[in-house]
Amino acid sequence: MSWVKVGSGEEPIKSALVFEWTWDSVKSFDELEKRLRERLFYVLRPRNDVIVATSMTNPSMIIFVITCRDGGGDIVVIQNPGGWYDDEDIVEHMPLFEKCAGIKIKLGRDVEESD
Hints:
Blueprint: E1 2-5, E2 15-23, H1 29-38, E3 41-47, E4 50-55, E5 62-69, E6 72-79, H2 87-101, E7 103-106, E8 110-113
Parallel strand pairs: 1-8
Antiparallel strand pairs: 1-2, 2-6, 2-7, 3-4, 4-5, 5-6
């Protein structure tokens, strides 16, 4: 996992974290999309290998961009400025997303600071 923290709080993106994932109980990208929809996520599929999802809460604070390649892919977790989570909160709650999605997420500690 890696993430970037931004500076003043006036930027249109508060934070972005990147995780690697692999298949677990779901075995296809179609199945992943279906499972997220069933668990009350709003889901777009702009390309066969990309899912964009957010919770049905309004306003949405977190957007998940999930890419697929052989054996898994990457998840980019984007928080808008209205989000009240710090990066550690997001990392701490990724196992919940992992369980909802039916995938395994690698939770590493590669951190970059950005001004």
